[in-house]
Amino acid sequence: LGKSYAHPFVVLIKHPNQEGSSRFGFAAGRSIGNAVERNRAKRRLREIIRPRITSILDGWDIVLLARYSINRASHTELKHALDELIIRAELNKKPYVN
To answer: Using CA atoms, how far apart are residues 90 and 70, in angstroms rounded to an integer?
Structure first.
């Protein structure tokens, strides 16, 4: 298991890997809601992380675990939450600019 960093909307878990690049996983448990809501939560996380991939250090396995309150978060709030978690986890190569 890796080290985790929590936010009310999402939990970031990182673990070093032996690959040349970082890999991402997205999870949403049943507490998020039905299948439609869980898939929506994972889609939102993927959409927000995609432009940030180039600014994330290589060699990590990263799992983003959606929390129940993600359904109430706006797009901007979720972006700020992920940026905060990436910085706290010390995964950023360079500062991300929107």
So the answer is: 23
